[in-house]
Amino acid sequence: MNVNIANNCKNPIVGLGIDIIDVRRVEFIYKKYGLNFCKKILGNNEYNEFMQRLNRNYLKSIKFIASRFSAKESFYKAIKIGMPTLSWHNIQIMNTSIGAPIMKLNSQLNDWFNQRYGNIHISISDESQFVITCVVIEKKY
Fold first, then answer.
1. Is residue 111 part of a domain?
2. Which residues are annotated binding-site positions?
3. Domain that holds residue 93
4. Is residue 6 one of the residues assigned to a domain?
5. pLDDT digits (tens, 9 = 90+) for 75-100
6. Which residues are annotated as a binding site for Mg(2+)?
7. Which of 19, 91, 93, 96 has the most crowded CB, counting CB atoms within 10 A?
8. pTM of the model
9. Is 60 exceeded by the pLDDT of residue 2?
10. Which CATH number is 118's domain given?
11. Model confidence over 67-76: pLDDT tens digits?
């Protein structure tokens, strides 16, 4: 039996962004620029979470920065708009009570996004030296 998934899908995918980053590269940049780097990449809530993690575990805090950087890159790839057009602070990646990542867009980007797209799905995975993220954007109905 052949099934055409695209025809049976209520909300087809209109954007896909995938990014992988070497955690050592992020650590190098963090050591060079310190908290200024974090303030450039992270929104207020993300920055507060980073500082809490930094006080508990240095390596996990570096992976946190890497995951947020990579997720934002994946989002921009999925909507096909480059970084010069948008700011890192337009997006914050937070976690639900069970740890699932969710993407929060600032009001201006959220309005623009909701006029064009449906739901956002995000996945973040890390291994000792790498973080990989995937963002899927659904068509709006």
1. yes
2. 19, 73
3. 13-80+88-139
4. no
5. 999 998 765 567 889 999 999 999 99
6. 19, 73
7. 93
8. 0.88
9. no
10. 3.90.470.20
11. 999 999 999 9
